[in-house]
Amino acid sequence: MGPPYREAEALLEEAIRIRFDLEPPFGELKLIDRRLLATERRRFASSVDNWPELEGFEPLEVEIEPWQPVRARREFLGRFEELGLRGRGAV
């Protein structure tokens, strides 16, 4: 996706690092993120699509259950509340 994507990704990573008080670099998180993306690709995308950013990354041994948007929102907000993030400036 090139330089514009990498720049946007770097800004987002920095915002996440600051918000959740994480230490750079994100080495292990980056590995997990790529493996999750490879898992999503396996489930939702055509195998003929070229995804060079996933070269060398194997999907996780999990199956993803797609949810309708209404359920996804409900599940997300429920977990958000469960983690106690409401009112702390998140989302």
What are the defining features of this structure?
3 helices; single chain; mainly alpha; 0% strand; 54% helix; 91 residues
Give average pLDDT, whole number: 84
**Cα gyration radius (Å):** 16 Å
β-strand number: 0
Summarize the helix and strand pattern as letters: HHH
Largest sheet: none
Helix share bin? 40-55%
Distance between the termini: 27 Å
Q: Which class best fits the helix and strand makeup?
A: mainly alpha
Strand fraction equals under 5%
**Globular, elongated, flat, extended or rod-shaped: what is the shape?**
globular
Secondary structure: elements and pairs:
Elements: H1 3-19, H2 27-44, H3 69-82
Could you describe the 3D structure shown?
This protein has 91 residues and is mainly alpha-helical. It has a domain at 3-62. It contains three helices and no strands. It has helices spanning 3-19, 27-44, 69-82. It is globular, with a radius of gyration of 16 Å. The two termini are 27 Å apart. The mean pLDDT is 84.
